[in-house]
Design a protein that fits this description.
Blueprint lengths: L10 E2 L5 H11 L11 E3 L2 E3 L3 E2 L2 E2 L6 E2 L3 E2 L2 H18 L4 H17 L1 H12 L3 H26 L3 E2 L4 E4 L5 H14 L4 E4 L6 H13 L4 E4 L3 H8 L7 E6 L1 H14 L2 E6 L4 E4 L5 H11 L12 E5 L3 H13 L8 E2 L17 H16 L3 E5 L20 E4 L6 H4 L6 E7 L2 H8 L5 E7 L3 H7 L5 E6 L19 E4 L4 H6 L1 E2 L8 E2 L4 E2 L2
Parallel strand pairs: 9-10, 9-12, 10-11, 12-13, 14-15, 14-20, 15-19, 18-19, 20-21
Antiparallel strand pairs: 1-16, 2-3, 4-7, 5-6, 8-23, 13-22, 17-18, 22-24, 24-25
Length: 518
């Protein structure tokens, strides 16, 4: 559907079609891309193995490259080959490792626009956010390159490679960032491409790293098929996981039984509390930023917990902001040479997720939730006749029923829910609905009220009237309750998590036998 606000039908920005991006990949890294597929990388070579699955872009439903899925036996061979790489790499000098990682960052910088364009097509990120994902990876790893010496002083690489299983939403700033820091610390690294998107972007990034001699393995496959190799194999020195609680719980059980080093970042219902508050202009300004990438991030805020007597003032601040959101095709412009469109978000990750959200919204309303805002597709920026099945317009619901997933779980889409409370005890109970979260925020005018209530909110990072994020460089990151298992990361803690220190060392983290804050 084409927006009624556009008299001229929109077109795709010149030079940004998927075919254009694919041809650039073939030219930049012909060893990793074939005419119609990407390859797996293991045993220090690009392998034309695995069954390439069909895939479509969430942007417009058009065909794009799918993951070449390995079977269990091939994955085990890849892990064994990574162990051989690890045993050699751990003896490479720190100076040489720094030089190779730095060279990789230079190559990523050279091709940052292509990496960002792949993110647009594969996972639907608007251009601004796709570039930010690439830049955060590069800038974050440079911080480690510049300051790695004291972080590894007195420490050694692990006994085996680090296995990385991450969600699709931040291929560069989370997954590639982790891979390069882990390698800088002296480990060979393995990554599984997310099933739902990002395979071409990751393939290009890993091709650039492999050229510089970084011992990286990149494989595709289903979690159930590859978990024996990527999680349970004795060769693995550490498992780093970013994803949902169901899958994370299975990984947590496996690594706990094996006594294996692990970093498991899982979802939680991040909440924003409003209590004795009056700075509504500040809240209005921040609301659109909370919808970046359609709230498809582990530190999104999908739940507002609002003091009942402030509800009218809250709505007066919230609704104009949410009505201002810009949604649509991330590459659709009026004229082919126009700048990239400035959007808050594009599609969700796929049409199936969009349907799930639409169904959950409809069910919640049928059981008593009150719709306060529903964006209209007529206001979105679409190409004439394009497939829009992966798009969800922003929705805000008051009091989702307890039976609804929107009541207790993170929607991972542009859906806000609001819960009204009358007492501080209710406020805290509602903000702690998911047994632990990664971030939370409390907006209150009184500093003493914040100081008193914040320690009772079960989130790793808590903002006073401001959103918190995963962080960069020296900012620590972790989670409480079911939102995190294993070692905390960020800053020097990321290096400590993937290296060995004294025999009696207790890493800061959330472990079954202890919880230790930094």
């Amino acid at each position: 559907m084409t927006s009624t606000l556009n008299a001229t039908p929109l077109v795709v920005k010149s030079g940004t079609n998927w075919a254009d991006a694919w041809q650039r990949c073939l030219a930049v890294a012909p060893e990793a891309f074939r005419d119609d597929r990407v390859l797996n990388l293991w045993n220090a070579a690009w392998q034309a193995d695995g069954r390439a699955l069909p895939a479509t872009s969430p942007v417009d439903g058009s065909p794009i490259a799918g993951p070449p899925r390995l079977d269990r036996d091939a994955a085990h061979r890849a892990v064994r080959a990574s162990l051989d790489q690890h045993r050699a790499w751990r003896h490479v000098s720190l100076a040489e490792r720094r030089a190779r990682v730095a060279a990789t960052l230079d190559a990523l910088t050279q091709h940052r626009e292509l990496l960002a364009l792949l993110l647009v097509w594969e996972i639907g990120k608007p251009w601004r956010l796709a570039q930010a994902d690439v830049d955060r990876a590069i800038d974050g790893v440079r911080w480690y390159v510049d300051g790695i010496e004291p972080m590894v002083a007195g420490r050694a690489p692990l006994d085996g490679p680090v296995s990385n299983i991450a969600s699709w939403n931040y291929p560069m700033s989370v997954l590639v960032h982790a891979l390069l820091v882990q390698a800088l610390a002296g480990n060979a690294v393995i990554a599984k491409t997310p099933t739902d998107g990002g395979v071409a972007c990751l393939t290009l990034a890993c091709a650039l790293a492999a050229r510089e001699g970084i011992p990286v393995t990149l494989v595709s496959g289903s979690g159930g098929e590859l978990s024996e190799a990527l999680v349970k194999a004795p060769e693995i020195g550490c498992v780093s996981f970013v994803g949902g609680r169901d899958t994370g719980a299975a990984v947590a059980t496996a690594v706990a039984d094996l006594g294996k080093r692990h970093i498991l970042e899982q979802e939680g219902l991040n909440t924003w509390g409003i209590w004795n508050y009056s700075d509504w202009d500040t809240l209005t300004a921040v609301i659109p930023k909370l919808f970046d990438y359609g709230k498809q991030r582990c530190t999104a805020y999908p739940r507002f917990v609002v003091q009942r007597e402030l509800f009218d003032a809250f709505l007066a601040a919230y609704l104009p902001a949410v009505r201002s959101l810009s949604v649509g095709h991330p590459l659709a412009v009026t004229h082919a040479d126009d700048p990239y469109p400035a959007l808050d978000f594009g599609p969700v990750i796929n049409a199936a997720k969009a349907k799930e959200l639409h169904d959950q919204i409809a069910e919640a309303i049928s059981r008593g939730a009150v719709p306060l805002h529903r964006g209209s597709p007529a206001d979105a920026r679409f190409l004439p006749g394009q497939d829009t099945s992966a798009y969800v317009q922003p929705v805000t619901l008051l009091n989702p029923p307890p039976s609804s997933p929107l009541h207790h779980a993170e929607p991972f889409g542009p859906v806000d829910t609001i819960v009204l409370v009358d007492t501080e005890a209710e406020l805290l109970a509602a903000m702690n609905a998911s047994n632990g979260a990664l971030v939370a925020t409390l907006s209150t005018d009184d500093q003493s009220t914040f100081d008193r209530l914040a320690p009772q909110i079960r989130a790793f990072k808590i903002g006073h009237g401001k959103p918190r994020s995963r962080g960069d460089r020296d900012e620590l990151f972790g989670g409480f309750g079911a939102s995190w298992r294993g070692a905390f990361v960020g800053g020097e803690l990321l290096v400590r998590a993937v290296t060995q220190g004294p025999a009696d060392e207790r890493l800061p983290g959330n472990f079954p036998e202890y919880q230790l804050m930094p």
